[in-house]
Amino acid sequence: MNRVCLVGRLTAKPELRYTGSNVPYTRFSLAVNRTFNNAQGERQADFINIVVWRRQAENVANYLDKGSQVSIEGRIQTGSYTANDGSRRYTTDVVADNIQFLDSRRQNQNDARVNNQTPYDYEDAPANTTMNDVDIDDDPFADFGDNVSIDDNFLE
Length: 156
Known about the structure:
Distance between the termini: 31 Å
Number of strands: 8
Number of domains: 1
Radius of gyration: 17 Å
Shape: globular
CATH superfamily: Nucleic acid-binding proteins
Strand content: 35-45%
Helix content: 10-25%
């Protein structure tokens, strides 16, 4: 079985691109905190390459920004290519099947104001806009101003 579940923050604003046959996709890196501290007592993160296709790619590019927190389910895909210098390069990506936006509406608006951007209001989205076949208005985090903390150490 090849399944991956990740929760993390985007390291940069995703950029929407299109294949030669006009299929939308986006690539971005997700910073995922490790569940333990290093020898200096600091928490480290892994930076994982994510690929998203079609309508989800459009939604990710339109509604997420650097620092947005997301939950991703997908599969690991490996590949290789020959670089310009003739060397063989290997790649590992997570191909996302399911993306959940975890930031609240209020947090997204506050972040946009801090960065001098026009805040995106979920109510302005077209009625048929969905994230993983769930209407944005059904977002369980929409009424909360705080981020949701998902921590493996909650019992300690």
